[in-house]
Specification:
mainly alpha, ABC transporter involved in vitamin B12 uptake, BtuC, two-stranded antiparallel ribbon, 2% strand
Length: 370
Amino acid sequence: MSGGNGATACRRLAGMIPRYATAHTSLPAQIKKGLLSEYFVLYLSVFYLLVLGPFVQGLFSSQNVSDVLSNMWPLLIIAIGQTFVLITAGIDLSQTSVMALTSVIGAMLMAAHPDPILFSKSPLWQVILFEDGGLFAGHSFTVGAAIVVMLAIGTVVGLFNGIAVALFRMPAFIVTLVSMMFFSAVAIYLPKSENIRGLPDSFTHISSGSLGFLSYPFILAVAVAVLAHLLLSKTLYGRRLFAIGINPTASAISGIPTARIIILAYVISALCATLGAILYSSRLEMGRPTLGSMQFIDIVGANVIAGVSLAGGKGKITWTFFGVFFFVLLANTLNLLNLPFYMIDIVKGLVILAAALLDVMRNRAALQSQ
């Protein structure tokens, strides 16, 4: 009787060992699943809010929530443009210079009564900028024409980058780094480092106006995000873009017009940067020659931590949205904690380093799960 009970107990114990091992080994599998989840950054943002909420005063106030959302929309548009380039395994360092250049030229075209003392030495004085106002100032088409010119400038910069990368086979990092340096310098040179004020109310209303309870920046950001999502997920161009990012050689051999696809990606990136410049310039009520100079870390960091791989071939607009939300939230909480600017940059740098490491871990986990 006792022997039978002992044998039964041993069998039960033996039966428990596999179950325990299975439960124990499921933890790495759960971690892997979490890393590969496209909602990982959203979960991270929620966790971040829950942890810091009790310690950061005013984090959930209506004013702070409004500030976070208003900061999200232009950054989201710019980051979406960067997403297209990153999918090709490239990078666009020139987005911030496009923002500065288009902000300056657009403001010069619209400005009313610029100060001759400040701008008479500008190379564009008496060309598009006059003592009684910019070239388009005072007309019914002022804002629309200036925005068209801004978008055209962005398109030219994007074409330059795309052609250099796709047709001349130059490294994207070098090409866009040179573009950033050159066009940033031009943006400072044209107004002689001065901010350009006196923009029309119809332009500054872009950032503050709304359609019902929906702000114009929100509507524009959603429109860009929806169009970008459809372009990436529902069109032949999107499929080809991912194929180029995964294997450009195989894509070219299979007949995909790789040069045209890549050039368009850089044009989209520059156009998104221009739209961001329009929103920022409208909110600041000026053209600023250094606009966006400190934002590149947020643009790329938001994409990388969201899962848009630096190796190319992987990315989604929803991921970009989550990444932008996290970075705007991070910057907001660091400011609320009254940290010095250098400490904020240190934290952001560490976060991007962690995001790059996370990208490597995700790629390894994805390969192991195949």
